[in-house]
Design goal:
Blueprint: E1 2-6, E2 28-31, H1 33-40, E3 47-50, H2 57-66, E4 70-72, H3 81-93, E5 97-101, H4 108-117, E6 130-133, E7 137-142, E8 145-150, E9 157-162, E10 166-171, E11 178-183, E12 188-193, E13 198-204, E14 208-213
Parallel strand pairs: 1-2, 1-5, 2-3, 3-4, 5-6
Antiparallel strand pairs: 6-7, 7-14, 8-13, 9-12, 9-14, 10-11, 10-13
Helix pairs in contact: 1-2
Amino acid sequence: MKINLLVGGPIENYPEGLLEKRGQDELWVGADKGAVRLCEAGIKPLLSIGDFDSSTNRERYLVDVMSREVMTSVPEKDDTDTELCLRLIEQRFHPDLISIYGATGGRIDHLLANLFCLLRPEFLNMISKVEFIDKNNVIRFYNPGEHEIKQIEGMRYLAFVSMGPVDDLNLYDEKYRLRHADFSRVISLASNEFVSETAHFSFKNGNVCVIWSKD
C-alpha cells in the first residue's frame, strides 16, 4: 500500500499535474494547508490533520465536509503537522511507501524538521519507506545494507548525504565510483551522476540520505 501525504508548501514546487486527474484508487492524507488543497482539487483525504490556524472559515468548512476524518491539533506544539501525520499513517495503515509532497522548496526550517524527525528513534522503523518529492528532487533515507536504486525520469544526478557517521560507503557503477568512502564526519556529502538506469551502493552503520535531482 502507498499513502500520499500533502503538506502544503509552494504550489509552484509541486510535481506537474500532481492534483489533476488523480486515480480513484490513490490514498491521500492532508496536513494543514495540504488538506485544504486536496479538498479544493476534489480529492477526499482519508485523514486531515492540522491546527488550521491560517485557514479561512470556508477552507475549514471544506476540509470538514470532504475529509473522511479530521483531527485538529493545537498551534502551540513541539511536533510539526507532518510528524503527526506520519505517526498516524503508520499506526493505522502500515503502508509500504509514504510519498510526501509539498515539504520541500518552502520554509527551510520545516524541511529540516521533517527530514531530521525521521532520524529519531521513534521513526527509525519508517525511515526507509518515506520519500519527499517535488518537481526537481526526490529525497529518501536508507538503512545499512546493499541497495539498488533506479534513475527517475529527468533526474540524472544523485547525491549521498550522511546525517551522522557512516561506515564503508561504496557506490559500484556510476560516474564517480566510491570505494570505502570516508563518511565518518557528523555530516558528509558526495555528489554523483547516473551512467545507467540503476545504481548500486552499500554501507555499514548509520543512515544515508539519497537525493535524485534535475540539473
